[in-house]
From TrEMBL:
A GO MF term: sulfotransferase activity
Protein name: Sulfotransferase
UniProt KW Transferase keyword: yes
Record field: transmembrane: none
UniProt similarity note: Belongs to the sulfotransferase 1 family.
Boundaries of every Sulfotransferase domain copy: 46-299
Gene3D superfamilies, per the entry: P-loop containing nucleotide triphosphate hydrolases (3.40.50.300)
Annotated signal sequence range: none
Transferase is among the record's keywords: yes
Domain of life: Eukaryota
Keywords attached to this entry: Transferase
Length: 312
């Protein structure tokens, strides 16, 4: 996949005091017009946005949020694909490359809309910075997230010519991956804002009940003891892995059809572990990736544990 640098029309200067001239943004080659479309899109005051880097607990939080916003309708959740109920903003254009229909899945949603995106703060709709709808951000240890990306890619026919270590080496040597640390730190430094809820996959694993309670309070939605019991069961790793509506089958089938590549079958909800990278990588390679992470986070005067909220 080829990337190119992209300069958005404006930056969220009202949110963060930083030197935006130094902020690098990259996009997949050929998506400039789409990003301009996103920049100008209408944002509603009652929207709820879920923003993450890929494979950081996005689907887990997405299902949680949809249920909270839809009166804990578990039957409806089990009968329709998650991606249909709450669209991935970038997906329609990735598949169809048609600017006329690119935003239709989001525009067809009834309010309050739950919208997922992997775009960084400067590439999200500009109205987000003025209207400030509710936004949830989830981060994850990059070692686990990148490994999960590798296997998800192979499910669609990508990365088939690379070992895991080759894939990771390409990632940590790329300029685009360095921007992932801008992606997370910009939201991390906004975490005290009333419109933003910032958490991590690791915190969700530690105490999912608390996260559900926090989200209900954040979105001003009550939850009963019975609903909480159902939520914790529905959102358990075993249930999520077995649920065909939360494993992105709808999306994966479209990507496979578009590219027609040989692929492997890997469940989208694969292991769901904290520290699963220890089972996949040598200690020497882990040290190499950790050095890359520490080098990048130190530029922002934070640690990985800070970003994962593990020292709170």
């Amino acid at each position: 996949m080829e990337f190119e640098q992209f300069l958005p029309k404006t930056f969220p200067k009202n949110l963060l005091d930083k030197d935006w001239k130094e902020r690098k943004c990259y996009c997949v080659k050929g998506r400039r017009e789409f990003l301009c479309l996103v920049h100008n899109m209408l944002v509603k005051n009652d929207d709820v946005w879920l923003v993450t880097l890929p494979k950081c607990g996005t689907t887990w939080m997405q299902e949680l949020l949809w249920l909270v916003l839809n009166n804990f309708d578990f039957d409806a959740a089990k009968n329709e694909h998650l991606e249909v109920r709450t669209p991935f903003l970038e997906f329609d254009y990735i598949i169809n490359e048609d600017l006329k229909t690119a935003l239709r899945p989001v525009e067809m949603l009834t309010s309050p809309r739950l919208i997922k995106s992997h775009l960084p703060l400067p590439l999200l709709p500009a109205q987000l910075w003025s209207k400030l709808p509710k936004l949830i951000y989830v981060y994850r240890d990059p070692k686990d997230a990148l490994i999960s990306q590798y296997y998800f890619g192979r499910s669609m026919g990508f990365n088939m010519d690379k070992t895991l270590e080759q894939f990771l080496t390409e990632k940590i040597e790329s300029r685009e991956a360095e921007c992932d640390f801008d992606h997370v730190t910009e939201f991390y430094f906004l975490r005290s804002q009333a419109w933003l809820y910032y958490t991590s996959f690791e915190r969700m694993k530690m105490n999912l009940r608390q996260i559900v309670e926090d989200i209900c309070q954040f979105l001003d939605r009550p939850i009963s003891d019975e609903q909480m019991h159902q939520m914790l069961k529905h959102l358990s790793f075993e249930e999520m892995k077995a649920n065909t509506k939360t494993n992105h089958i709808w999306e994966i089938e479209q990507v496979r059809a578009k590219h027609g590549l040989p692929y492997e079958d890997h469940s989208f909800v694969r292991k769901g572990k904290v520290g699963g990278f220890k089972e996949e990588l040598s200690s020497e390679f882990i040290s190499r990736v950790d050095a890359w992470i520490n080098k990048n986070v130190s530029k922002y005067n934070v640690t990985l544990n800070d970003l994962l909220l593990l020292d709170d």
